[in-house]
Model the fold of this input.
Amino acid sequence: MRRSASPNIISLLASMAVAIFSTAIFLFITAIFHLKINYSVYIINIFIIFLVTLLLFRFVLVRFIYSKIKIIYKTIGKPLKFQNEVKEGSKNVLKTVERDVAEWAINKNKQIRELRKMEQYRKEFVGNVSHELKTPIFNAQGYIETVLDSDLDDPAFIKQYLEKANSNIERLETIVTDLLEISKFESGRIELNKEAFDLVKLIKKVFFQYQHIAQQQKISLKCHSEENAVFVFGDSKRIMQVLENLISNSIKYGKENGHTDIYFHDLEDQYLVEIVDDGPGISSEHLPRLFERFYRADKSRNRKINGTGLGLSIVKNIIEAHEQTINVRSELENGTTFSFTLQKYIPE
Ligand SMILES: Nc1ncnc2c1ncn2[C@@H]1O[C@H](COP(=O)(O)OP(=O)(O)OP(=O)(O)O)[C@@H](O)[C@H]1O
Ligand SMILES: [Mg+2]
Done:
């Protein structure tokens, strides 16, 4: 790669050129006017003229560059920390400027890449919202139009189609409610009602809720706790939402005759809760984006399964609002484990 000369070298070369030029003028004048100067005085004169011009020009140049540098530093928004060095004409100054500008350029490039990614994400998001809303709207519209075009004497037919239209409108409502909830979390407008509660009891409640669907898939649900009760401190309604999505996901995306197991690990101030399934798993390329809004791994496999890809985004927001963390580990054919932490309840 070709590298252009640094401003430091350029200023030195320019000063030397001017010094050589002024020495040449001195030589020229002494030659033209046949000045008779002692040989040693002559050499000393040449030396002094060269040196003085070199230093003087370099000083002027550096001061000039310094005024330009000030503008550069204003542009890159960094404090000018080497003012004294510049005034003393230090050679390192220009190197420092070069390094600072290079650093600034790297940061700007990083920001541009991030903005592009955000822009790409925003475009995808708008596309996803439109797509997800369009489907139930068109379906409901289709059912209502069929009813309107039909022979209105058949109440059973009308009821059946209106019910179908209604279930699509309910789906629409769920998506809009989920989106509003995510946006409230993201703008910090959700307040948590924290209290002490028993996590084991809550898990059993959610198991009961999903028992029927799990039985249909022949999936067993098990909570492995050494204690009868595990007390944590948080918003129980919100944590119930987290459990509902993680447990329903483990059934929805699990395999027939499979298992969903919940484990607790006692950390010092927290519990680590693991929801483990032995389903088909998620390939590693999807894992970094899994908690994004509308992200669904393996779209072809999921086509038959109802879902909008908003569940995990809400889950992450709830856990982060509790100032806790959530992670996922998964491998194709080897099941999936979601693990999150919760603050332990320690009675005073
Ligand atoms: N336990 C799991 N096993 C395999 N894939 C999973 C599991 N949990 C989540 N996924 C994948 O992650 C995607 C996102 O899950 P998420 O809960 O956000 O959305 P969803 O279940 O599709 O829809 P929603 O929860 O909004 O009804 C799912 O579509 C699925 O591809
Ligand atoms: Mg889900």
In short: The beta strands are 195-198, 220-224, 231-234, 259-266, 270-277, 326-330, 336-343.
